[in-house]
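Exercise 7. Given the components listed, write out the predicted structure of the assembled complex. Treat all entries as one system.
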Amino acid sequence: MPKKAMETLTESMYYTLMAFRLGPMCGTDVMAFVESWTEGRVQMGPATLYTILGKFEKEGYIQEVSVEGRKRTYRITDKGLSAYQEERARLARCIDDARRLETEEGRAWLNSREPELSIDFRPAHATT
Amino acid sequence: MESWLGDMARQGLFLQEEGIAWGLVRFQPGEPKEVEYRLVSRRKPQMLWKRFLFGNPEEYLDGPKEEEVDLFAQFGWVYLSKCGNFFVYQAEGEQVFEVDSDPQVQAISIQAVRDQEITSLVLFLINTAIIYSLNSSWSLFTILTRGWLPYFIPLILPLLWLFFLLLLQVCTLDRLRRKLARGVPLDHRKPWRHRSGLHFIKCAGSLLVALAFVGSWAYAYSGDIYVPSECFDVREYPGDPPFATVADLAPPGEYRLNHSHFSSGVTVWSNKLVPVYISWCEKADVTTDDGSVFTAALCVEYYELENEWLAKGLLWGCKKEGKQLAKRQDSYKVLTLPDLPADYAWAYVDAWDHPALLVRVGSKVLLASLEQTGDCQLSLEEWTTQMAESIQS
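Answer.
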């Protein structure tokens, strides 16, 4: 079933909320943080950032706290913090599921279902 | 658009500041070089009614906000021009920092533009319906049955064409949005030539529609659209008309046609949808044996249509027309009818302050108005019943 908008955050959105967790920031600061903290892996274009800020403000994830000339500063709201924590927990579960598959528990599960499975799901390093 | 502008720059033609307007693009010459162009969607809707309602110029500026322009400038992108619901930015060189790095986020901005276009489309339909219903005294069925449709189609063609263009825009944006939502980034170097054909087709279509509109309007204004008809005196009508006339409504007596302040006559025509049409205007005096005079002016429009569905439509059209005309003269009033032998009957006071009857029996429609003066007069019940009964069979 397709997810509704904002149910799962994209990587850019997730890192934007992560940036705002540090404190009130303007758009330029967010971009600088994301590029720096991900060591250049995640680079946000200006249009992407602008769209995310607009969407988050509309959804109530962030709110504007001050305007100095052309520079607008935002802070994360409780709703935004909650969304960030939910996404973080979801990502943690994804990694946890992958790790569990490599353990005794995972191997036992695979063995119990091997005759039913048409594809060999055994871990690459497993021996028969 | 992006790849086309880039190709033009490689030929030494560069988009001017605010160089896109009314479907035209202005260029300035220069040294050919690699320049990238990007179309970035507007953040806020651009509907006129919101400017009147909210009146906050900050919210509904024509161009991008200054902070947006500054932010883009930090990455080498310079704002150039508006282009419908998009802003055109330019950056020099082949290796540029992309403005949109996340296709799924870009899909969100495209969706906002698509939603605004859908709203424009719906408002366009609502406005058209309201304007038509308030101003038009001709219903579609009136136009259809009188054979005017071939001349009216080009008149409404601009509306249909505009609706088609809006719908095409909505579908294009939606297709783009779905592609981006799947995580597929746009190809900014996509060959533009095969899309340019579609653009020229739209331009040619718009030109043809405009010409057809002007041509049809001129032709309709010339009066040549009316169906060829025959006109003659009521006494010359061959046989009996298929409805009651003054002679049938009046009490027995001496009949005399009366031309004072009234022009009697019959007009007949026929077409595929309306095999029989009779317009009958008759003013006559009937002097009874006891010396009383029955004077009446009867105007009838009688239709025999191809089928009942057309008759129902025409009836609705005639009712709408009669009501609108009477309301303009402040004479409109619905009259109470007895139970008439008809599929539908309705009576009202028409624009000339006379009682009028609109009745349908099967695929026949009759519109009759009767003005009575003189010593003896028929009641509404009497003459409407006779008229309804006369068109049975």
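Discussion: The CA atoms of residues 158 and 209 of chain B lie 6 Å apart. Chain B touches chain A through 23 residues (CB under 8 Å).
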